[in-house]
Design goal:
- The protein is an alpha/beta fold.
- It is 33% helix and 34% strand.
- It contains two helices and seven strands, in the order H-E-E-E-E-E-E-E-H.
- Strands 5-6-2-3-4-1-7 form a seven-stranded mixed sheet, with no helix packed on it.
């Protein structure tokens, strides 16, 4: 009788374990589908002089919509038009047609903590971007550069007001 109870207990433990694994897979698949892990993607290479703290996994946005992620950041062996860093973007295939026209790629800072992301802007023009070749991106706005400009303006204002007095 004790052997039979142990067998039933082991079968229930095995069934519980299998149920747990099935629930885990369903949960992972559901989360992955919501995050686009199962969607087809294509790659775009963007070249920058400076990425300003951009990290792999950062979002890529077009008109405020997340359309992909930064999949890789690496240094180039040889500079291309003054750019030394290549950023690989993984873009969801369903957004390819939105990138057919004239677009520019910039690195933007968002939020209080300064999270970085790649923002894609539609621009008026006839220059259609070839997504199969590396694209020249625009460098991120640097707050330190702005501080230098304000400092120079403050010194100039002080000098002018002293001369007028």
């Amino acid at each position: 009788m004790a052997g039979r109870k142990d067998l039933i207990r082991e079968i229930l433990a095995g069934a519980f374990f299998l149920l747990g694994i099935i629930v885990l897979f369903v949960f992972i698949f559901t989360i992955g589908r919501d995050k686009g892990l199962t969607e087809k993607k294509f790659q775009i290479s963007i070249l920058f002089r400076n990425v300003g703290g951009l990290t792999e996994g950062a979002p890529v946005r077009l008109a405020g919509v997340n359309i992909g992620i930064v999949s890789q950041i690496e240094f180039l062996d040889k500079e291309a038009q003054g750019r030394r860093v290549r950023v690989e973007l993984s873009i969801f295939e369903k957004f390819r047609k939105q990138l057919k026209g004239s677009v520019r790629f910039t690195i933007k800072t968002e939020g209080l903590l300064g999270e970085k992301l790649v923002e894609i802007y539609d621009i008026a023009g006839n220059d259609i971007v070839d997504l199969s070749k590396p694209i020249m991106g625009e460098d991120p706005f640097d707050v330190q550069d702005l501080a230098v400009v304000f400092s120079g303006a403050a010194e100039s204002f002080t000098k002018t007001s002293t001369e007028l007095s």
